[in-house]
Structures are given as structure tokens and as C-alpha cells.
Amino acid sequence: MRFAILAAGEGSRLAQEGVELPKPLVKIKGEAMIDRLIRIFNDCGAESIHIITNNLTPLTQQHLRHLQERDGKIHLIVKTTPSSMHSFYELRQVMGEGKFCLTTVDTIFREEEFKQYISAWECSDEDGLMAVTDYIDDERPLYIATDEEMNITGFLDTVPQPYISGGIYALDEKSFTVIDKCIEEGQSRMRNFQRQLVKDGLHLKAYPFSKILDVDHASDIKKAEIFLNT
After folding, report:
1. How many domains does the chain have?
2. What Rg do the C-alpha atoms of the chain give, in angstroms?
3. In 3D, which of 7, 76, 77 has the Cα closest to residue 37?
4. What is the pTM (predicted TM-score) of this model?
5. CA dihedral of 156, 160, 166, 168, whole degrees rounded to 10
6. Dist CA 119 CA 49 (whole Å)
7. CATH number for position 78
8. Over the stretch 170-213, which tens digit does the pLDDT of each residue have?
9. H or E element, residue 8
10. Hey, which bits of 138-187 come out as E strands?
11. d(Cα 106, Cα 127) in Å, to the nearest integer?
């Protein structure tokens, strides 16, 4: 299984709230978020781990290049992009074909649930298996509309649904055609890419996690630690 991490954001809200480290290096239970993802991916049998970070945070670059020296599966792109969707487009150029799992760097989940999710994706016939959660603690949640069999029928900004997107995307290479189309049309944001997946007829299923957190604010660090200690 190939994995990829979107870590090119600026983390401006954390910085404004007094967090000095770049977001990928913020520690949860003593472990940098980027290190935690890499460790979990390797535990899931990662063939490769592609990471994109911006060129504004040399500390993150230095840290990841050091990890590269110890782990040949890590591949790094350093480029500042206008959105997470554009970051995914950059990763798409180098990831190769086949199934993969893409996450944002600040997504926090239970490791055992993630391993079960990856196992389900490896056996899946769908074009995508999207991680969802009914835990809603997001300023701008992306709601997931599904049918009774958890087939995804839409991604909604304002119409409440039982689940929201968890920032974990298991997809196959069919998604590359969609991301290319989005870039050509001048679209931005991952949620618009997800909408385009549905519009273009890809078969996506929702996979519920008990809880997924994003670390956007300083207070979220403590929330994440309490969650993982529960």
C-alpha cells in the first residue's frame, strides 16, 4: 500500500495562538504528528510514503530529510501550494498507479481503527473508501451524504448529515484523472475535488471511525492527547 501526507499548510492558527513549532512537528503524547503518521503507515506495511511540505518551514524540511536518510520509503516534495488540493496534485505526479491512502498531517485517529480501515480498503472493489466520523468539532465541517449501504452520494457544506469527512482518503488511480480536471478548471480545496469524484461517477463508500480529530488550534493538542489516552 502506498501512503501520502499533505503537510504543506502554514499552520497559521497554531502560530497565532503561541505554538512555536510548525504543525507537522507539533507533538501529541510526545510524538510529532508527522512521525506518528509515518510510524502507523509503516506498521500497515507501507511500500512508499510520499510527503509534501512547503518551502517556508526549513525546520520541517530538515526533520523530514533526516527521516529520509533512515527510511528509504519516504519521498519528499518541498513546494508551497495555494491549497491542499494543489498539494495532492503535486503528489499525484510521483506516486505511481494503484491504490493509495492520503491523509492530512493533523488528522488524529485510533491506530487500530486505521489498520482495520486499510485492511478493508485492500479488499475493496470501490474506487474510494473515505474515512468519516460522527464526531463533529470543526469550524467548517464537510458533511457526507450516503445511502443505506454507505455509498457516498454527496459532499455538503451546510446541510447536516450524520457523518463528516475525516481527512483520510483511500483512492485508486481513477482519482488522478479527476484531480487533473479540477486543476485544469481552476478549482481549489479538497472538498471540491471530493465533489468532483461523485460528479464523475466514481464509486465511493464511507467508512466510519469512532472519532477523528484535526489539530487546528492550540486547544486541540490537549483534546487529541485526551482522546488517545481514552
Report:
1. 1
2. 17
3. 7
4. 0.96
5. -30
6. 17
7. 3.90.550.10
8. 999 999 999 999 999 999 899 999 999 999 999 999 999 999 99
9. none
10. 143-146, 152-156, 163-171
11. 24
